[in-house]
Amino acid sequence: MNDDRIIKQLDTMVAAGRVTEAEAAPLRETAGTPAFDAAMGAMRARHASAQMDGAIRSGELTKEEADAYLDRLRKGSTRKASGARLAKHRPRTH
User: Fold this and answer.
1) How confident is the model at residue 81 (pLDDT cuts 50, 70, 90)?
2) Residue 93: how many CB atoms within 10 A of its CB?
3) What Cα–Cα distance (Å) separates residue 84 from each residue in 44, 45, 48?
4) In a domain, 23, yes or no
5) Residues 6 or more apart from 55 whose CB is under 8 A from it?
6) Which of 14, 42, 84, 85 gives the lowest tally of CB atoms within 10 Å of its CB?
């Protein structure tokens, strides 16, 4: 997803509860700069870390694999296959 598209969708994402206003603020502040990628990586890692415990408990990932995955997210990797693998461990909100 490109940076401009993310910025345009932030209000919708906040309203839907997918992103908090505290997470959106650094993205808005760094839009169009190299720091934007770091802000996105940090947010993606925070979101993914909520799913890591379940994936580790189920044996889907080892602690080392989870740590490596979070590190890749922080550095900008967005491999969909890894995200799909964790999706079933997403905490339920209802």
Assistant:
1) very low
2) 5
3) 14, 14, 11
4) yes
5) 61, 66, 85, 86, 89
6) 84
